Amino acid sequence: MTQVPDDQLAEHDNFEATEALWIQPREALLRYWDREIELAPPQIMSLVHLSRHPHAQSVLAEAQNRRPPVIEPEPFDQDGIRTICYPGDPRHSVRQAAFPGPSRLMFKDKRFEPETGLPGLLD
Q1: Per-residue pLDDT tens for 58-107?
Q2: Closest Cα to residue 121, out of 19, 37, 47?
Q3: 80-87, long-range: CB within 8 Å, 24+ apart, which pairs?
């Protein structure tokens, strides 16, 4: 999901990320779930948000109509599982959700995932 001039060339920075791949947000989430790619929690949550938009213009329109949310994940241990909660989660100090999607990610089987599994990423 992007909107750039036709003649613009995208380049991988070789510093912040180890690889670059241009795919739709939903496809990235599916590949993450299938363990084809690795994602960190900020990437997961950003892709969940972006996947709910049909095109780049929709994302830009939303961004122009609201202030950027302050997102401060709050980690905790849930039954021995490393868990991160986000605004809107009952355990988070900020009660209002900052974005759609799951309000917490749990570290299971060497990756972060929502309590509801794949539907939590895609619905």
Answers
A1: 999 999 998 888 889 999 999 999 999 999 999 999 999 988 899 999 99
A2: 47
A3: 81/106, 81/107, 81/108, 82/106, 82/107, 83/107, 84/41, 84/112, 86/45
Contact 39/47 with Cβ under 8 angstroms?
yes
Confidence (pTM): 0.86
| Nearest of 82, 72, 79 to residue 111 by alpha carbon | 82
In contact, 99 and 69? CB cutoff 8 Å: yes
Tokens of 11: 């380049």
Q: Where are the domains of the chain?
A: 43-122
* Helix/strand/coil percent split, the chain, to 5: 30, 15, 55
